[in-house]
Here is the input.
Amino acid sequence: MVFGDLRGWIEALKEAGEIHEIDAEVNWDRELGAITRRVFGNGNGPAVLFNNITDYQNGRCQRLFTGGLSNFSRIAMMFGLPKDATIASIVKAARDAFASKVEPVIVDSGPVKENILTGDDIDLYEFPAPQWHPKDGGRYINTFQGTVTKDPDTGVENVGLYRGMIGSKNTLPVLIIRPQNWGSHLTKHEAAGTDMPVAFVYGWEPSLPFAASAPIAAGVCEYEVMGAIRGAPVELVKCETVDLMVPASAELVIEGFIPTDPSTFEMEGPFGEYTGYMGGERGLKHSTRVTCISHRNDPIFRGTLEGNLPGMVCEDSIMCSIQRAAAAWNVLDRAGVPGITDVHCPAANNGLTLIIQMKQTYRGQAKQAAMAIWGSSAAHLRYKHVWVVDEDIDIHDYGALDWAFAYRVNAAEDDILFFPGTFGSPLDPSTRLEYRDVQKFGTGKWCRVLIDATINLDFEPQEAYGGERYPPSVQLDPADIALVEKRWKDYGFD
Here is the structure.
């Protein structure tokens, strides 16, 4: 659905009763983050627009917007679906968008060019990047932006979502993990001895962060997926100092270069990560040398609070629940794994657990599904645990999953398999600290796990079970259920 820009999205949220504006003064130093944490709660809170931020009331950028995608209702709105759309229907919309492309269009200029700052006029501190968590290593300006880089070999642009903090007025240190797209681009620039151009885009339609943080197929530009989500091309303009394209109606764009010379590295980290723990140890990392800032008049800064905890979701975890299920289902389809009837990623773990529902037709089908998932680039930071169940198990009902785990899993029958030594998240605290050094290893290290909670097709069908491999369940006869339903009030029940 087309909203035009961040301001159009905010207006749509106002009409839907999905946003709360705070006019009281709020300090960017921890207070704003604490408010955001409480509002996000368990995923039922509104989006928030902060209109009165300490030290920024009369500055270049006075407002901050967060939480636009922190519940499923607003993700449904982004796709043009009813607010009460089911998770399955939202996943279906995401699957369709990820498999489609709407080419962007190039325009001469746009609102993001209303103000252009270069040289000594550049000052990242003029934008209200919060101290989100008390133990963050600094003020994280990159939490919900689009990071634009280009493959120097193919010329295809990538839009990702990666963290970064303010290092100084004109430097922005970042965490680069090599299997990510911009990590691959940086590796090619290192080989060529060139600095990597980059543009950070803040504040546009919701499809920007949604597509930027999704595992889009290789060779596909996220601008094309954003176009598919909104059902119309994204209008792009050329940056001022780097050869990259950005949305013409974005609120703010920061341009620059990331040098490959280690002497230019700056201290970065830690940061309150999606895991719910502080992640990415403090250390010298690549840093962006900012060459230009362009922004709209009265720009609205866009950021978000990371960090999932039991009973507390974040914007990223809600998005991941949809994105990672949709991407995994598309991977399974492309790999030719048959019988997939539903796929789910619980929001509580940001896509680390993938649950697949399938109709088995042959031995080893669950294992085939897990291997297809783990062999895809989409599995880099996600899908640590894959859980497969039969089509009679509701994968959105944890009680049903627990029942299947209890009575359809036998470790002695290879129903629990370990796949060690794979790439994985360097932010996962269950991995030894020495394995999480991205400067040394490029990424983290995981042992992945398959839980095959399907009925074992190696079991012989039994005559006593009516030719089935498992005994009959204790389901009642439909006639008995109908009788009881008919006479329910006769028994004295309401």
Summary: The CA atoms of residues 362 and 457 lie 7 Å apart. The chain has a mean pLDDT of 96. The first helix runs from residue 6 to 15.
